Amino acid sequence: MMTDNDAQARIEALEIRLAHQEAAIDELTHTLLKQETHIREHTETLQRLELQVRALAPADGEQATDEKPPHY
To answer: Does the keyword Coiled coil apply (predicted)?
Structure first.
């Protein structure tokens, strides 16, 4: 049979566990939001770099002006 003290101790233990779980969830949420921001920034940077590389690369079938033709 459980006494009032035992029940109170179990309730307190559950409240402590709940508080720790809430803190862990808050920390995970914060970390997830930071990662989402970083991913968005990296995606934007990658898109800008792709545009720059495409602007520098010759179009298909064209040779860059400073390259020698293949028969040289």
So the answer is: yes
* All residues at 6 or more sequence positions from 69 whose CB lies less than 8 Å from its CB, including other chains: 63
Biggest CA pair distance of the chain: 97
| pLDDT tens for each residue of 27-42 | 999 999 999 999 999 9
Residue 72 lies in a domain: no
Q: CB of 56 within 8 A of CB of 62?
A: no
pTM over 0.70: no
Report the Cα–Cα distance between both ends of the chain, in Å, rounded: 97
User: How many Å apart are CA 56 and CA 22, to the nearest integer?
Assistant: 51
**Three-point CA angle 18, 21, 27, nearest 5°:** 145
